[in-house]
Amino acid sequence: MRNNVEIIEVSPRDGIQNEKKLLSLETKLELIERAVDSGASRIEVTSFVNPRRVPQMAEADEICAALPRDTNCKYIGLALNRRGFERACNADLDEVNFVVVASDTFSQRNQGTDTETGTQLFNDLAAGVTRPIGVGVTIAAAFGCPFEGEMPLERLLKVVEGCMQAKPFELALADTIGVATPRDIHERIAAVRELYPDVPLRLHLHNTRNTGLANAWAGIEAGVSALDSSFGGVGGCPFAPAATGNIATEDLVYMLERAGISTGVNLEKAIDAAQFIETSLEKTVPGMVMKAGVFPQTNASAA
Q1: Model confidence over 194-212: pLDDT tens digits?
Q2: Is residue 181 part of a domain?
Q3: What CATH number does residue 204 fall under?
Q4: 237 is catalytic
């Protein structure tokens, strides 16, 4: 069992990409600044997609140009196609994270291409990188597809093997629609570990069926080095029906720190950031610790 785990804050990207309320550039930048201030070591700051399809991700280039640079925090941009990958590489970011969807139907809905073509594109793009930028890959729908149903392990491993030809510095498995259980996490992480024992593994978990934190714990048990989460538990995919938010950063930090697992994230500042995003979106967000508070509460009177 690890005694530390890296939390990647994704609220500026996944957290807001499915929201009806469009946040201003200033609000997006303040959210990123709050993530930096909370102690996040890596932040997924935006997605380089067509703003006509995902209007919440407009101003991606402007966001990257205005990022605070007097910090040790690493900034990540998400890409779904060649144009987005090239924009990310030219945006003075530390990492570009490319998405390959494990099922053909969802891949067509999400990126307009089948899985095999997406895998080959990732390999071609990674091979052509000339700038000093980390290239990672996320396998979306790694545990189940909203259109095709169960994701066979053999299918997932075939996609993983295809993507690993590009030698990404990190491999992420995404439970895009929140269907995984801890048993699934253990099984799939173990299967990938057997093939690629040295590649750093990351989990992207959605809490659609209230299994997100249990799956995060299972992931740590299985040896993942990084977990994605989002302030307030906001998030969702515009192209996946009923895909709700990510696991909440403050809930994850509370669970891990109470269990003696270091995250480097300040819980009080994470709660403040969750409250900020709730106010900005003008809606109640799913996070629980932001409502209940930390324990023990030092200012609480005895009953």
Answers
A1: 999 999 999 999 999 999 9
A2: yes
A3: 3.20.20.70
A4: yes
